[in-house]
Every structure is written in C-alpha cells, then in structure tokens.
Amino acid sequence: MVVLGAGFGGLELTARLSAELGHSVGITLIDKSDSFVFGFSKLDVMFGKKQPDAVRNFYRDIRKTGVRFRCETIVSIDPVERRTVTDQGTYEADVLVVALGADYADYDLAATPGLQEVGHEFYSVEGAERVRNVIPSFEAGHAVVGVAGAPFKCPPAPSEAAILLDEYLTQRDRRSAVDISVVIPFGVPVPPSPATSEALLATFAERGIRFLANRRVAALDPSTGAVVLDDGSELPCDLFLGIPVHRVPAVVEASGLAVDGWVPVDPTNLTTRFRNVYSIGDVTSVGTPKAGVFAEGAGRVVAENLIASLAAGEPAAPYDGRGSCYIEFGHELVGRVDVDFLTGPSATGIFAEPSEELAAEKEAFGATRTERWFGV
Ligand SMILES: Cc1cc2nc3c(=O)[nH]c(=O)nc-3n(C[C@H](O)[C@H](O)[C@H](O)COP(=O)(O)OP(=O)(O)OC[C@H]3O[C@@H](n4cnc5c(N)ncnc54)[C@H](O)[C@@H]3O)c2cc1C
Question: What's the confidence (pLDDT) of residue 336?
Fold first, then answer.
C-alpha cells in the first residue's frame, strides 16, 4: 500500500493501519517534507510564541510497524496503474491513497497580483516565519487580514490571525496607531455555526477590528500596497497578511484525478473513480471544509474499510464529516466549534465559549496526535 502525503490524513490512516495490519501489510508513506507541522502552529510561529524548530515533528521519528517513510518529491501519479514516480524511484501499489493536501508550494500566489511583491501569506511555515520577522517593525498604519479565494483551509484562521494581531499590538502599546480589517468571502466568519460567528463578531466589535463580509482580495497595488477587493473598491494597507488562492498540488492536477480543481470522491467511503485508489483531506471536494480534523476523520474511515475488507468483514460506518475545531480568542483563551457536515440536511456547528480549559484541550489535541502518529 502506498500513501501519498504525510499530513493529517496520511498520518492518521497510516497509524491506524499499522496498529491493525502492520505485521501483514507493507505501507510506504511518501512526503517531500522532512517534518509535519500542525496548521495552528503557524499562528504561534507568526506571532513569535514558538520557534519554528519547536513546532516541527520529524518523520524520521515515526516508529510504526510495517511503515516505511520516504522523504521524496512525487513527480507523477498514474491512478489507473496505481504507479507513483518520485524524484528517487517508482512505487507500484495494490492500494493507493492520495492525501497531498492543498499544498503551500502550490498556493497560487500569482493569482493575486501584488501579493508576492507587497504582501505576506502566513499559511506556510516559511510565510509565517517571514511575518514573524516583519511585524516587530510594524509601528502604525493599516493592517488587513484577507482571503484571496475560496475554498481555503481552516475557515476560522483569518479571524484568529486578526484577533492575535490585535493582542500582539496591544501588548506592545501600538494598537491605537493601527487599523485592523478582516476580509472574508463569506457573510459571517464561520458560516455553519451562527453562535461561533456571533462570538467572533462580538470580539471584533470589542477590539475595534473591522469585518468586511462577502469580499475577496483580488490584488494588491504594488506601488501603494493598497488592497483591491473583488468589487473594485480599495483598502489602504501597510501590512497585508493574506490567505492565497488554494489549489491541488500540480502533480495531482497532471494525474487526471482532479475534476473542477479538486479530487471527487464518494463521500461515504472516500473512493475515487479509479479502482483501489482513495483520496482524503484537503485535496478532495468531499464536502467538508479544508481542515485537519476532517482529513483525519476521512483517513480513519479508509483505514477501517481496508481493515474490514482484508478480514472479509462488514464495511465501516460511512464517513460522517464531523469534527471539532479550536479557535484562538486571544489572552490564552480558546473556543471550540463542533461541526457536522454530512449527516444532516445541512451543516451544523455547536459553539463552546472560549476558556482556559479549551486552551488545554487544544494542547492535548496536538499531543495525542503526535503520540498516535509518531510513537511506537
Ligand atoms: C494557519 C492555519 C491554521 C489551521 N488551524 C487548524 C485547526 O485549528 N484545526 C484543523 O483541523 N485544521 C487547521 N488547519 C488546516 C489543516 O492544517 C489542514 O486542513 C490539514 O493539514 C489538511 O490535511 P491533509 O492531510 O489533507 O493535507 P496536509 O496536512 O496539507 O498534507 C499534505 C502533505 O502532502 C505533501 N505533498 C504535497 N505535494 C507533494 C509532492 N509533490 N510530493 C511529496 N509530498 C507532497 C505535503 O508536504 C504535505 O505534508 C489550519 C491551517 C492553517 C494554514
């Protein structure tokens, strides 16, 4: 079995299969990176709360029976033959799982003219590191946290970034000299959960953060830095923290797996239209938001189905598109939204108020994953 991509989805799937089938099934896990970083750790890096090295979980530390990790770049995928070519070799698989995410190397920075010249993205570790070096010298002016296109990973993340920027500037006595705006292509910050959206909007109001709904950042003016929105209006801007247009990695696009930009799958069991080829997580158009918890849930369903089929047992319960996302509210307080995307007639999201307990729960969420995915 070959698993392409060692992110939330690939790691969960591999860990579960190793636990159940590690002595009888050979699993090759391939990723071009040498380490995994939780998406939310990028917020810690950009605001200087954690060192970049402290948030890396190195794949060389994976201790999983039956799993061999290969740090290689995938250059082509043939879903009919289930053959993968990397910069170092060729892998044939009985079962192939594509879990390559909406990869930062393939964020479409060029889709937002001016972004590379006068703006910053914080969705990659490198981008978060650059922001970390820039914000200490941002003394006054207009800051815009803006989304360039949907779908994008972790819908609450732009709101979290704005709240944490407010806190960062307040702690440095510079808040009164800065305007902060958030631009999001939705009517509210977290559409499936009115209560979460209300809490975020109340926090924005309390902290003087301007919220621009149903707008997308189309470009940045390279001469003035101004943000140009999709309706042609402009926002003055001295610090742009952006969420670039997402797309599947180029190798997935070239493989023929993607249709209309993303890999279509059967939402109940994550099969693609190619025999014995599955796809999980952000790279798919499964119908859940692009977030780690959903990629992880999808990985679990594929693992359970493979385990059941090898044992000639009943198929696993269908993927339910449920997951809990933690939301930073500043002052070390974290809220949580429990969302359900696939089991009812429409998506629902239940909000838990920000608290220190939930901040501890978020820490534990990360720790349990690293133990499960990397430990013996
Ligand atoms: C700022 C921020 C905050 C976030 N906060 C949260 C949160 O609180 N909760 C949450 O659930 N989610 C959060 N997310 C989203 C979460 O990180 C992603 O949705 C999740 O990582 C998706 O998992 P995945 O397995 O689909 O893909 P990924 O985790 O992106 O993994 C894909 C892997 O494929 C590899 N890859 C890509 N192309 C190639 C290639 N050609 N060759 C070899 N390897 C390749 C990449 O290196 C990567 O390791 C956040 C994201 C960001 C940016």
Answer: 97
From 4, 8, 56, 319, the mutation candidate for ligand 1 (largest count of ligand atoms within 8 A of CB) is 8
Neighbours of 83 (CB within 10 A): 15
Whether the pLDDT of residue 304 is over 80: the answer is: yes
- The pLDDT mean for the chain works out to 95
The preferred substitution site among 103, 163, 325 for testing ligand 1, maximizing ligand atoms within 8 Å of CB, is 103
Q: What is the pLDDT of residues 268-286, one digit of tens each?
A: 999 999 999 999 999 999 9
CA distances, 331 to each of 171, 288, 307, 335 (Å): 10, 30, 44, 12
| d(C-alpha 249, C-alpha 185), whole Å | 23
Asked if 153 and 162 count as a contact pair (C-beta separation under 8 A), the reply is no
- Please choose, from the candidates 54, 13, 17, 51, the residue with its C-alpha nearest in 3D space to the C-alpha of residue 31: 13
Q: How confident is the model at residue 148 (pLDDT cuts 50, 70, 90)?
A: very high
Q: How many CA atoms lie within 13 A of 293 on its CB side?
A: 21
pLDDT-based confidence at residue 133 (cuts at 50, 70, 90): very high
> Per-residue pLDDT averaged across 207-234, rounded?
97
- Taken in order of first residue, the domains within the chain and their CATH numbers are 2-103+247-320 (3.50.50.60), 106-246 (3.50.50.60)
Q: Which atom of ligand 1 is nearest to the CA of 292?
A: 11
pTM higher than the cut 0.85: yes
Are β-strands 322-328 and 334-340 bridged in parallel, bridged antiparallel, or unpaired? antiparallel
Q: Which residues lie with the beta carbon below 6 Å from any ligand 1 atom?
A: 5-10, 30-33, 39-40, 42-43, 73-74, 99-101, 103, 123, 153-154, 157, 249, 251, 281-283, 290-293, 295, 325-326
